Amino acid sequence: MRSILVSAFDDSGLDGRLQVGADIVRAFDGHMTCLNATPYEMAVPGDIYGAAFAAMIPVMREAAEELEKRVSAHCSKEDVAWNFVNQAGTAEDRLLAHSALNDLLVIGADEPRLDGKSPSPTVSAIAVKSRTPLMVVPNDQKSFPIDAPAVVAWDGSTEACNALRAALPLLKRASKVYLLCAKEKKQKRKFDFPPLDGANYLSRHDVSCEIVELPESKEHLTKQLLDGAALREAGYLVMGAYGSSRLSETILGGVTRKMLSDVKLPLLLAH
Known about the structure:
The chain is an alpha/beta fold. The chain is built from 9 helices and 10 strands. The chain has a 10-stranded mixed beta sheet with strand order 3-2-1-4-5-10-9-6-7-8, sandwiched between helices. Helix 9 (254-261) links the parallel strand 9 (236-240) and strand 10 (267-270). Helix 3 (91-99) runs parallel beside helix 4 (121-129). It is globular and about 60 Å long.
C-alpha cells in the first residue's frame, strides 16, 4: 500500500483522515494524494442565466485555497510524501477516477453534504463501484495503529475474499489477526470458502491467524462483530462490502449498511 488516496473534503473528520493516510504511508514508505472535489457544474434552481452560479465560483475557489492551506499545515508535519489535488466534479466521480491508480482510498464515514447523515451515499456508491479497497474512518479517529490487532469478518463469500486479499499488506503488520465467523442455524446459501481456507491463504503469506466462531445470538451480526473487535482491542476491521447483487437492500447489504451507519473503528471494505 504505497499509493494512498485521501478524501480531503473540508469537514470535522479531515484531520483524522489525513492522519490515518499519513500513518499508512509512513509505514510503507509511500505517497499520499489528498483530493478535494469542487462541484463547479452544479446548477442553481431558477438561475436561468447562471448569474448566481457565476458569483459562487470565486467563493468556491477561495474555499479550495483555504482547504489546501489546512491540508498543507497538517501534512508538512508528518514527514511523508504528499500532494494536493483540487478538481471539478462530484466527490464520487473524482474519487472513483483517482482510485484506479491507488492502493487504498481513505474516506470519511459521514456525508458532509447531507449534514453528516450516515450511511454516506458517497461511501456506499464507491464501495460497490471501486476496485480499490476503502478505509472508512470515524470522525474522531486520531491515528492508525499499524501494528494493532486486526479483525476480519469472514463468511467465505467472494466479497470477504476480496477484502482479505486487499488487506494483506496491513495484516502482515498486525500484531494479531482474527477471523470472526458467525454461526447460523439456517444459512440461506452456502458460502464459497470455509474459515479454514481463509486461514490457509493467510498462512501462505506468512500471516498466522486465530479463527473465532461467534456464537448464535439474537443480536445483530454488526454488534457481534464490533463487540468481538473491541474485546480483542482491534485497530481496524476488514470486511466485504455486499452489493444489491447479493442482498437486495438499496445499494448495500444489511450488515454493511448497518456497519456504515455508525462507524466505531476504521473499516477496510472491498467489493
